Fold these 2 entries.
Entry 1:
Amino acid sequence: MGNKSTVKYITGSFAWGTVAKLLDAGIKFLTIPFLLSYFGKENYGLLTLAIATNAYMALFDMGINIGAVKFFSQWIVSGKYDLLHRVAQTNITFYLVISLLNSIVLVILGTWGEGIFQVTSEEFVTFRYLLYILAIFSIVHWVTFVFTQLLIADEKIDFTQQINSIRSILGLILVGATIWFKWSLIQYFLIYVSIDIFVTISSLILCKKRNLIVSVLPAFYWKDFSIVFKYGLAILAMSLFQYTATQSRPLILGVFSTTGIGILSEYRIIEVFPLFIISLSGMLISIFLPKTARAIQGNNRAAIEKMAYEGTKYTSILVSVLCLPVMLNAQELLTLYVGSEYVHLALWLSVWVFTLILYLYNSPVASLVLATGRTKMLVYSSAIACIVSIVINILFCNTFGVGSAVVGYLVYIIIQMSFYYFYFNNKILGLNSFKVFKSFVVPTIIGLFTFLCVFIFKLKMDSLLLQIVLNTGIWFVVYISCLFLFRVISKKELFLLKSR
């Protein structure tokens, strides 16, 4: 289990994660108009409201998800399968409690929550049944987390993404069957939620096959589980500050801006592209964590430094490939998406996407820090960055408009990165911060230089879509060629990495 090539594991996991997310996004894009037309605007709105209401329950996770992957990974590599099995079964107990709380909240909302939602009495009757369905399947939803955590810890994240892809395809088939057989909204939703059973059973079978769990019966080894729980609480605190820094931005614009509510529309418009990038690259921490947890557990300096330096280099290249094409084609993308009247937002879109470069490239080092379990300073740094970014957003919302949210986020990331370079890299991981920075800045500077060259001589065509494809293609070829030309990457190096 520990012999899998790092590069093959990371590239395979990311590739399948990308396939799963693109497939899910594409199927949703394809099916939403059909569901909207079939059920009607009001009923489809009830479906959306039910799913959104249940989404808030994700906060109940309390950071256990990351903590479980970290410790499961370490116990697998050290052969502590008895401890793994005890904590996995206790984790099932934990999630059963969470699912019970989840169900109680949903039943309460479905029974006495009519006045909370802006729906008619007739619509609320349907909405009530949707919440009840979610309550019934809550156990399946939450317990699946345990099996997924075990598989990710065992470096089988590609399998979890393959299962997610199949789930998306089943969702597409369900939409066709619903329209063909003229099923009601409640019938559709019942089957839609029950598809999770497929995910649960598939994940459980592989967990049993790989000796990751011996029984699905709840257990009560709380002393063993407490290490995961305490770590999860620290992750929760850090996540709350990160969540606040992100989600408070449109709220601040709405409260403090004097330009009207239209500024929120501008925010939502430019938010779409960064969110898509984050959805693709946000899985990097989950991919890296099993590897970094094992390296930290064994105090394997070679593996730690390889992840920090080489991992940062390749992640920087990947992030550049995701982000720079959006910056290159910002005006064209906005024109295609919402019209030429919003082209003035291209600058802030580009700044936001550039901020993602400064943030996402650090995923290997961030996963190493998480693997150490020394999270106190992560909480402090997140809190400081969160507060400063909120203040900046408030102070400049009437100067920069929607740009104040972007600038606030940029400052948030700069503060976070400063803590890594001046504290985490040296004090926690014993790394050379300059080497980490070099691993990031060299491929990124080459990416920015090639970006400027292509941007200055950018092709102009009648078809904006064709223009985007050609300019992106030209930049990509030039960028990859320069990476080989300046020996940032080499065919020999790639061959050696693949063979490890």
Entry 2:
Amino acid sequence: MPNRRGVVILVTAAVLGPLRAQQGDHPHPHDAEHLHHHADAGRVWTIDDVLALGRNQRVSAERRVVGGRSGDGDLAFSVQVTADRLPKEVFAANPHDGKRKRSILECAHGGFAYDYRPGKGEVYWHLQGAGILRIQRDRSKIVLLPTDPAMRRLNLHNATFFVHKGQARIAWPAERGARVFLTDVDGKVVHVVPKPTVKPYSDGAAYAPTDTAYLDGKLWVTDGYASKYVMSYDLDRAAWTGQIFGGPTRKIEPGKFGTNHGITILENLIYVSGRQFARIHTYKPDTTFTGMFPLPDGSRPCDFEFFVLRGKLYGVAASLDKPTRSKDRGASIYIVDMKTLKVVSTIKPRDELGLDKFVHLHNVFPTVEDGLVTLFCQAWNGGDFAVLRQVAKADAKAAAPDPQRKR
């Protein structure tokens, strides 16, 4: 079904089989949930179809703005934890910020790693100038771990937890350091992934890694801030595999990137956040491009993560900016129904939850705990931190305005 441009896109948002976080050796806690298969997995979409979908990203659930809550339908959230719970060290001046002299928290520019192993549940984060932080399983305490000085000096742009050959690891890409640190869960460096050796990097192309994802012994790395490619590294051989895809573009183009910022792997499908043009691209592990779908125009999604709730698969996007022509004061978090690829809930941390520093979102990581979704959120410029918790149905009903009440 080619369109007038002669381009055909197969949108493959289907996810088959049980959900696993980063495809580690251990199953994700959400494995017990049964996933829905994508009803349109075999449908062929043209460029015009995809653009039309982007123009019609309407929220399907009823939206009620209630004090202290934000979101749509059952996917509404309130603030559970704020930066006040962080260690005092993160409020000191960042010694690596040059003349700007911002605090360590104000320089926040990273993301979260979730230990999905049974009985675990800790979340890890890094702040330049302070080091690795561990958010305890019950969220009551956040501690600063001993961190290698080389890691403390650099901004570590995101974080990925995975299990390789029975060993728990966290990958930390340093965009200005042009390398990826691998640590254990206590913060000890166990390996450093160097600059790629595959072309165009072997010919001198710039390299600034922004995110990683793990699959079957390989670490996939996005070079979002330099040459715009994605490539894989074999952990057993400690060598780049030669697999590479993507590359730069100045327009919406299937499989090419303005900024390939984030990467997530779910059931052998690689999802890459094309931040510049608000598109999520998908690839097979053999580097075959399989499709893309849009998020609200101008939103610039930094990352795309997944959770399963009551048998349904959802995607979560942290957006850097508010949508085009929006009158909001800050960017939003979008929850996407992966069966329809429609935004079904929009959470506004600044405009509706009172988190004034959340002008730009850099990373949001979802977990499901006790049947409710928790969102770990990090703002950029100025940096901030918050944990949002899904409002339970009973609480939401009690807080909702009575439509029969006389005014």
